[in-house]
Amino acid sequence: MHATKGDQLVQHGRVVGEHDKVAEIVEVMGDKGTPPYRVRFEDGHEAVCSPGPDSEIRHRETQL
Q1: Sequence ranges of the domains in the chain
Q2: I need a surface site. Which of 10, 21, 25, 54 has the fewest CB within 10 A?
């Protein structure tokens, strides 16, 4: 998994009815775009995370 600042991290819901969580990557803390990432969720909450297999990166150029 590789990301750059400004990409989106999407954590898919794990159970039926649970919504996906979308966050903007505000800092890449690993080498060459690898996790961990500092992210800001839609509600303004910030966290440091190392995404698992239920997550995907949406790169800026594909969000248009």
Answers
A1: 8-54
A2: 54
